[in-house]
Amino acid sequence: MNGPRFGRPDEVNFPRAMALYALGALVGLGIAGYGLFTAQGTATRGVPPEDVALVNQRPVLRSDFITQLESETGLKFEQSTRADQLRVLAEMVNEEMLVQRGLELDFAETDQDTRNALVAIVNQQMVADVTTSTATEQQLRDWYDSHRADYSTEGTITACDLLLRAPKEAAGAAGAVGAASSAAAALREGQPLAVVLARSGMENANKCEDNLWFAAKIHLGEVLFEQAKGLNAGEVTAPVVLRDGVHVVLVQKNAPPMPMSFEAAHDKVEGDYKADREARITSATMHFLRQRSRIVVADEYKRDYQP
Amino acid sequence: MQPSGHSPTRGPPGAPPRARARTRAGRAWLATATVLLLAAALWWRHEVALSTALVQAYPDAIPGDPVLEGWALARGDRAYARHCSSCHGAAGEGDRRHGVPDLRDGDWLYGSGRVLEIERVVLYGIRTANSKGWRLSVMPGYARPEPDKQYRLEPLRPSEIDDVTEYLMKLQGQPYDASIAARGALVYRNQARGLCWDCHGENGHGNPAIGAPRLTDSIWLYGDGSRAAIRRSIAEGRAGTCLAWVGKLDAATIRALAVWVHHLSARAPATTPTSASP
Fold it and tell me: How far apart are CA B248 and CA B250, in angstroms?
């Protein structure tokens, strides 16, 4: 027997070649089979180690199980009894089965709470990557440079809203305006507020509270705020007649909005940058969804319908 | 003409030394390949066994198991460098400019630093779309017209923000003005306006169940603890986020990351509150 031998790798041996082919095929099949039957979501024999149960191939994660067990019992996992563990496991399996049944029954179509929850979660999911990402300093700087006008300090103002309740009669109202004018003049001369209030019979309607500009606009009302916002400390508005009477506003402090540097505006810039990206990604996702959906609108709305 | 029927290159018996050398090299190659294949198979089996043991173990027990912890630390180190370091820093030092916590300080916003709790953060994130994650609360921006989107809260006046800032300086044990801090304490505990105590606790000790930080230590998530930085947080609000990794990383890697972060923080000295009384 002088033919090529099995144990001589430098000789071509047909049985050896076939054996190696078969071995390779077996190893390949083994790896493929292992992957097929153990990959997450496809396991059919046994439970993946990270899970505590599979319900129609849907995993119940071991970490979720431990957390729920500790939450329900108030004990650490190692202190819990086996009965507790089995009870919680049964609850979680039941929950999974009921969720799957809910999907079969298509509650998303009929149950408003389910619909609301789905809409909310999908809206959040759309922007999750943006929400949890961190913008680079250069991206923020570029945003700031292109939106510089948006970044100013919120103005603060301390203003006293002095009110003289006016009689309804025209003559009385005119008299009230005159009295308020006198009070304003006295304040401009530097007379103490308490004295002016006592003499004029006016009331300090807002107790001279300090406020951010947006809040002062709400508290004073737009008319008075517009009169007051340009005044400096110690200045007084002219009398303003409103429905409840005649107002005079004494400005004690006023710090109008000032442009903010990038460093000072950093947090706002970051928030705005993210909000803009979230809005863009939401818009793009909705556009994509519309494109792949067949939307038919009733005749009476068809002409004006705009998504 | 080859009298024996063999090619000289195949090295039959009595063949030239060159052919025999080839035969020996071939056998050595085959043996080496077999050994390497066996070693790889054994290594793979070992890795699978450890990976399985890691995800099946009770998370809080892993730090007490040198074999599992060592394996998890090696895997977690690689995963951290790849997935987490861009935000948390190469050494876990965080970034107070963006509200990224220092993972080395042993101070926990959520929970108490158990591996199980850390794993929940890695799995489901913070303020992500995943409802299993932490997303119960945000720090309202009290200088905004609408401080909180979920709850109806009134904005604070600038002086009230200053007062609360001073009160927090007192809680920190830093120099403070007593009369301003006293006013700030009233706002802090006011049910109708500040409502700070609702999350941060009556005495500023925080609430790890909702991620409300302790205000009585020297650890800051945003800024440097200066008056200006504290005021900015109160005025502008805060709502840090962390990505959810469930479905993106496998279970063993997620657990390894949790063990790695736990190990990192366990080396830090325990944080103690300042001595200032609220």
Answer: 7
Residue A40 near residue A57 (C-beta atoms within 8 A): no
A99 touches chain B (CB under 8 A): no
- Chain B touched by A2 (CB under 8 Å): yes
> CATH number, domain at A214?
3.10.50.40
What is this structure's pTM? 0.79
- For residue B228, give the nearest of A216, A266, A257, A215 by alpha carbon: A266
Asked whether residue A171 falls in the same domain as residue A227, the answer is yes
Is residue B193 a contact partner of residue B186, using CB atoms and an 8 Å limit?
Answer: no
Would A279 be classed as within a structural domain? no
- Are B211 and B136 in contact, with CB atoms under 8 Å apart? yes
The answer for residues whose C-beta is within 8 angstroms of residue A144's C-beta and 6 or more apart is A151, A262, A265, A269
What is d(CA B134, CA B130) in angstroms, rounded to the nearest whole number?
Answer: 9
Model confidence at A172, pLDDT cuts 50, 70, 90, reads: low
Torsional sign, CA B103, B108, B111, B114 = positive
Q: Are residues A115 and A75 in the same domain?
A: yes
Interface test with B, best of A26, A40, A50, A206 (most B CBs within 10 A): A50
Q: Least CB-CB distance to A11: which of B10, B131, B236?
A: B10
Continuous segment of H or E residues that includes residue A247: strand A245-255
Tell if the CB–CB gap between A210 and B56 is shorter than 8 Å.
no
Instruction: Report if residue A110 sits inside a domain.
Output: yes
Query: Tokens 């009921």 label which residue?
Result: A98
Q: Domains of chain B, with CATH numbers?
A: 47-130+241-266 (1.10.760.10), 158-236 (1.10.760.10)
Q: Are A114 and A67 in a shared domain?
A: yes
Let me know if residue A28 belongs to a domain.
yes
Q: Which residues pair with A53 in a beta bridge?
A: A60
Does A161 lie in the same domain as A147?
no
Of B122, B105, B97, the residue nearest B232 (C-alpha): B97
A164 plus A147 within the same structural domain: no
Report ipTM (2 d.p.).
Answer: 0.80
Q: How many domains does chain A have?
A: 4
Phi, psi of A254, deg, nearest 5: -155, 120
Q: Does residue A298 sit within a domain?
A: no
Whether residue A61 lies within 8 A of chain B, CB to CB, comes out as yes
Length of chain A: 307
Shared domain check, A79 and A207: no
The structure tokens 């986020």 sit at B241
| A53 phi/psi in degrees, rounded to 5 | -165, 160
What is the domain extent for residue A140? 134-151+262-273
Q: What residues of B are in contact with residue A140 (Cβ under 8 Å)? A: none
What mean pLDDT comes out for the span A78-89?
Answer: 96
Task: Collect the ranges in chain B with pLDDT lower than 70.
Answer: 1-15, 268-278
Q: Are residues A140 and A174 in the same domain?
A: no
Q: Which residues of A touch B123 (CB under 8 A)?
A: 63
Nearest to B138 by CA among B170, B102, B105, B99: B99
